[in-house]
Each structure stands twice: as C-alpha cells, then as structure tokens.
Amino acid sequence: MNPQSVLNLFDRQLRREASPDGPGAVVQRIGAVVRQDGGEAGWNGILWCDLDEAGADAAIAEQVRYFAALGREFEWKHYSHDRPADLPRRLLAAGFEAGPAESLLVAEAAALPGPEALPDGVRLLPVTDEASARLFGRTHDEAFGTDGSRYVGMLLAQLAEAPEQVAAVVAMAGDEPICGARMEFHSGTDFASLWGGGTVPAWRGRGVYRAVVAHRARLAVERGYRYLQVDALPTSRPILQRLGFQELGTTTPYEYTPPTP
C-alpha cells in the first residue's frame, strides 16, 4: 500500500467528494470548503478545506455564521496535512475548542488477519433493532464514559432508512454487552470506515476488540470494499497497527458551540 496515494484517494473520495452520512443530511460545497448539514440529530461539520492564508479567516467566519444561525454546534474536522499550516491556531482564535487528536489509520481489508477467537462465553450479536441498539449504547456509555444515546438514535435512523450503509455489532458475555462497534460503507468509494469499538474495562486485553475488527473487515471484503479507515485513539492505535493498519496522519476535532442568546 502506497501511503501517499491512499491518502490522496481518501481525501478525494471521503472528503472533497463526500456523500451524506445519514438520512436527512446534506453535503454542501462552498468555495474551498465542504461541509455537512446533518440536521438537528445528525453530525454537523466541515469535512474538507483547501484554504490559503489570505482567505482562511473569512472562510472560518462564514461557517461559524451558518451554523450559529441554525443554533447548532458543529465540528471542523482538521487533518494534519490541511492548509494553511496555521489553521489550528486560526480555529482556536475563532472560538473553537480542540478535542483529542486521533491517528488516521488505513489498511487493505483483505490483508488483515482472519477471524479471531472470542473468549469463552462471548458471542457477537448484530445490531438490527432498538433492543440491540440499546445494548450498543450501553457499551459506549461504559467504555468511553460518555452518553451514547445520540449515537443510538443516529444508528437506528440509519438502520431504518439506509441499512446498506451501516453495520453494527455488540459482543455479548452472557446477557451483558461488553463491546460495541459499527462500520459505515461509503457507496461509490473504495473505503469502509470503522467507528466505536469500545470495550468495557473489565474485558480489555482479552482479544474482544481484535475479534470485532476482524468481523468488520470480513464484512467489508464481502461487500467489495478495498480499504478500511479508522480514526484511532491512543488506546486502540497500537492494536490496529499490529493488525496491519498504517498511519497516514492525524486528525483533530475542533468543536464550536454558538453563544447562548
């Protein structure tokens, strides 16, 4: 895999020419900026930009005005190779807050290791309805320490209106959910992307996460996708790199919250 060629393909297919990621979402191209208006319940943010120093501040201000007029928080998804080089400083000066940096990892799906054995008593449950989606949400709550109800709602909407674009799974130890993960299939591209994969603390280090990655890689191959892409936190990056993922850069979420009227 040639990292620069794959990064160029990723930028073109999933950023510059991005398709909406869920029901009701709209991708809009405004000059050198590509944004998604995800509506009240979806993801709102900037997918791509190719700005110069002269026009960067005005472009940032335009996006702030757009989402502030709707009363919505939004994310500027910044990648380490985006221009201009001082874009992070400009975003902070405009009132954005930086989240944790993540590694942009990509692998050829067919080259990843085959199925991983699950610990005794653990099985994988596909997410197909509200009950299994709630189990998925419980793993998110416990693994990441945040409220996963928004993701449950988004997942249910995708399963209802665009089931061909998403797959999710929950690892179950008896009746208890211990790991939840989803993947998105980007129609018309070479990429499927992995999201979540959070394992509850008591089950970490026992191969559950690796098994869930292998399960999703098989689904991607079956559907004809060549590459798997992950935005990896430091906790999962070493595991994914051992499986064969390569780091192509870093990505940082810059969040903007409109002032309260």
Descriptive report:
The protein is an alpha+beta fold and 261 residues long. The chain has two domains: 3-102 and 251-256, Aminopeptidase (3-Layer(aba) Sandwich), CATH 3.40.630; 108-248, Gcn5-related N-acetyltransferase (GNAT) (Aminopeptidase), CATH 3.40.630.30. It is 33% helix and 30% strand. It contains seven helices and twelve strands. It has helices at 3-16, 56-70, 87-93, 130-144, 149-161, 208-222, 237-243, and strands at residues 26-30, 33-37, 45-49, 74-79, 97-98, 102-108, 122-126, 166-173, 176-185, 191-199, 227-232, 246-256. Strands 1, 2, 3, 4, 5, 6, 7, 8, 9, 10, 11 and 12 form a twelve-stranded mixed beta sheet that branches. The longest helix has 15 residues, at 56-70. It is globular. The N and C termini lie far apart (50 Å). 36% of the residues are buried. The mean pLDDT is 94.
